């Protein structure tokens, strides 16, 4: 897990501890400040076997399109022709996460049905995604 933590911190991401995709701490403050390496390692000591979440939005300069319904991919590709040209993660549920770097100061709000597509979410400010450890990263 240490190489993953180092890589995620190097990318500048704000991290939170998760168990089964749910935060095990009050995580909202990490939308505005990043956890220290000491805090992150204390989570492993306190909670044991955890996953890490990446807080999306300006704090991590990251927005993520999460596709849980693969049948929506052709419609999403119509809206975003360069969809497959970004960093993407194949999730265990056989969905996808498409990662987009935000410009400094750029804020993107989360949206449950991006472009009105059920099963397609935009994760921005006010949300998080499970870090891709163990996922198929392209």
UniProtKB/TrEMBL annotation:
InterPro entries: DNA_primase/pol_bifunc_N. SUPFAM superfamilies: Prim-pol domain. Residues 5-137 form the DNA primase/polymerase bifunctional N-terminal domain. Pfam families: Prim-Pol. Transmembrane segments: none annotated. This is DNA primase/polymerase bifunctional N-terminal domain-containing protein.
């Amino acid at each position: 897990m240490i190489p993953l933590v180092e890589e995620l911190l190097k990318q500048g991401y704000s991290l939170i501890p998760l168990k089964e995709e749910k935060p095990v701490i009050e995580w909202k403050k990490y939308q505005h400040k990043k956890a220290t390496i000491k805090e992150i390692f204390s989570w492993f000591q306190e909670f044991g076997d955890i996953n890490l979440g990446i807080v999306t939005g300006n704090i991590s300069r990251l927005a993520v399109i999460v596709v849980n319904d693969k049948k929506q991919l052709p419609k999403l590709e119509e809206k975003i022709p360069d969809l497959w040209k970004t960093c993407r993660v194949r999730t265990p549920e056989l969905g996808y996460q498409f990662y987009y770097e935000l410009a400094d100061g750029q804020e993107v709000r989360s949206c449950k049905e991006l472009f009105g597509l059920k099963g397609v979410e935009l994760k921005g400010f006010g949300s998080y995604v499970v870090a891709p450890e163990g996922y198929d990263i392209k």
